[in-house]
Write a structure and sequence with these properties.
Elements: H1 2-8, E1 16-18, E2 21-23, H2 25-39, E3 45-48, H3 53-65, E4 69-72, H4 78-88, E5 91-96, E6 101-104, E7 130-136, E8 144-149, H5 150-164, E9 171-174, H6 181-194, E10 197-200, H7 206-212, E11 216-219, H8 221-228, H9 231-235, E12 242-245, H10 252-262, E13 267-272, E14 276-280, E15 294-295, E16 300-305, E17 312-317, E18 324-325, H11 329-334, E19 342-350, E20 357-362, E21 367-370, E22 373-376, H12 377-385, E23 390-400, E24 404-413, H13 418-428, E25 437-440, H14 454-457, H15 460-463
Parallel strand pairs: 1-10, 3-4, 3-5, 9-10, 9-11, 11-12, 12-13, 24-25
Antiparallel strand pairs: 1-2, 5-6, 7-8, 8-18, 13-14, 14-15, 16-17, 17-19, 19-20, 21-22, 23-24
The chain binds malonyl-coenzyme A and adenosine monophosphate (AMP).
């Protein structure tokens, strides 16, 4: 695709802009080819996914070399980073754009095996090869590597290009992190797949979105709600073609404010790291607040509802699904029903008349979405329990007007402050996994089986002891 873009849009000096620096397709391809040549034969490469042209070049270089790429959250604490590197077996690389090549980071393991043959920089991508391994949290334990093939990614991007009428005429604008599906797969690979210009704003601030002058904008609901609260910035988006929200539920009042300020009814789409984007509203179609549209072409969905109930778990199949959790066949098997449908863990309802889906909530309170980040309660609880002064910990997501949910930790501990515990978590895990609030309690309420009763933590009974 990049080679074709170089021919068709060779004059675009600002084909890809990230955090204020631009590259043409030719420059990007040159840098990516240099990376590909350097890493050929490596088992997997890990890239510290800062918001930078280097990250784009590294990911594209890995794709060219057919080496699976593992984006590392730049703010990940040492424990999280170590886990990801060990679990994936990836070699960390650093990309030097000026010299257009990658360095295998000191101290990392040597290439595990040489699988690439011939000129890695030009070899065609075998679509069933793992292309990306994205680490994401489950309800318990450390993050798991979600293995995505090039075939799944291209199927998803092509389906999205169709339903959003996304083309080389567009300028895509966003400022999302480059280590998740939203910012990386849609926000970078989507731009390269469709040939749209990309402006990554570094941070997703209302002012930066307003100044970028794009036709297509991506954001998580927190970003949209901050834009809706900045009327001047919002008004600057009136000239765009399409505003797209995803990664968490867009509150209806934010939808209505955006419509009033920008003249656009934002399109919502629904997805997961494991499935990529599977359900979406259509450009030019009818869009209702609180709904995420209909399945993309090729995706089938069903609602596993109890008899007589209208809501139930959303399950799906299709070509955009992952091939499994890296090295965890049991977890992969557990993610599917006996008849082969992927269990999203999201509770949904379907409008029988037009097939429009509505996401009602999550089946488990242990999967939290804060600012669009997916956070497993268990991972944060384990980090807190590693602190010598903490004897019990229960982490919950509390409704929050800005973040959707905010992380609150209930702990049983002596001789330590909430701020110390928050810092302790940040030293182990990514920054956004820090609890926003720590409440000290005498005991975590449990049922007869010893399982924490987290819903009780949010009642007045526990509110009083904060
Ligand atoms: C945060 N801060 C804290 C804190 N948490 N300080 C103390 N204690 C804590 N617990 C700090 C931050 O570091 C920051 O500092 C400041 O407070 C403001 O933080 P914030 O409110 O979190 O805002 P911000 O950093 O601007 O983050 C909001 C956001 C971010 C929306 C920009 O959450 C974000 O980028 N979300 C996107 C997540 C995403 O892409 N998800 C997609 C997953 S893929 P300072 O000093 O830095 O200002 C997926 C599939 C799909 O879901 O469907 O798309
Ligand atoms: P992640 O794996 O980070 O991609 O998170 C996936 C989860 O994000 C899904 O299981 C949903 O709970 C949530 N999600 C994504 N898009 C939406 C949306 N449009 N509305 C509600 N929830 C969403």
């Amino acid at each position: 695709m990049l080679t074709a873009l170089t021919g068709a849009y060779g004059d675009r000096a600002d084909a890809v802009t990230v955090a204020g620096r631009s590259a043409s397709y030719e420059e990007l391809l040159g840098a990516a080819r240099a990376v590909a040549a350097d890493i050929a034969g490596t088992r997997a490469v890990a890239v510290t996914a800062t918001a930078s042209l280097e990250t784009v070049a590294a990911v594209v270089g890995a794709l060219l070399a057919r080496v699976p790429c593992v984006p590392l959250p730049p703010d990940a604490g040492p424990a999280e980073r170590e886990h990801i590197l060990r679990d994936s077996g990836a070699t960390r690389i650093e990309v030097d754009l000026a010299r257009k090549h990658a360095t295998l980071a000191a101290g990392s393991t040597a290439p595990a095996f040489a699988s690439a043959t011939g000129d890695a920089s030009t070899s065609a991508y075998a679509s069933e090869d793992p292309a990306l391994i994205l680490y994401t949290s489950g309800t318990t334990g450390p993050p798991k590597g979600v293995v995505l093939t090039a075939a799944a990614i291209t199927a998803d991007l092509d389906a999205l290009a169709g339903v959003w009428q996304w083309s080389a005429e567009d300028t895509l604008v966003h400022g999302l992190p480059l280590f998740h599906v939203h910012g990386l797969v849609l926000g970078v690979l989507g731009a390269l797949r469709t040939g749209s210009r990309l402006v990554h704003t570094g941070r997703p601030t209302p002012e930066a979105y307003a100044a970028a002058g794009g036709s297509l904008y991506f954001g998580v609901p927190t970003v949209w709600s901050r834009i809706a609260a900045a009327p001047e910035a919002a008004a600057a988006l009136a000239g765009a073609r399409l505003l797209v929200s995803g990664s968490a539920a867009l509150p209806a009042p934010v939808f209505r404010d955006l419509e009033a300020l920008t003249g656009h009814r934002p399109v919502e789409r629904y997805g997961m790291t494991e499935t990529l984007i599977t359900v979406s509203g259509r450009a030019g179609g009818e869009v209702r607040p609180g709904t995420v549209g209909t399945p993309l072409p090729g995706i089938r969905t069903r609602i596993a509802a109890e008899p007589g109930a209208e809501i139930g778990e959303l399950q799906l199949t299709g070509p955009t699904l992952f091939t499994g959790y890296l090295g965890r066949p049991e977890a992969t098997a557990a993610a599917y029903t006996d008849d082969g449908w992927f269990r999203t863990g999201d509770i949904a309802a379907l409008d029988e008349a037009d097939g429009v889906h509505r996401i009602v909530g999550r089946a488990s309170t242990d999967m939290i979405k804060s600012g669009g980040y997916r956070i497993g309660a268990g991972e944060v609880e384990n980090a807190l329990l590693d602190h010598p002064r903490v004897s019990e910990a229960a982490v919950v997501g509390v409704p929050d007007p800005d973040l959707g949910q905010r992380l609150v930790a209930f702990v049983v501990a002596e001789g330590v402050t909430g701020a110390e515990l928050t810092d302790f978590v940040a030293a182990h895990l990514s920054v956004h996994k820090r609890p926003r609030e720590v409440r000290f309690i005498t005991a975590v309420p449990r049922n007869a089986m010893g399982k924490p009763q987290k819903k009780r933590l949010l009642t007045d009974e526990f509110e009083e002891r904060t």
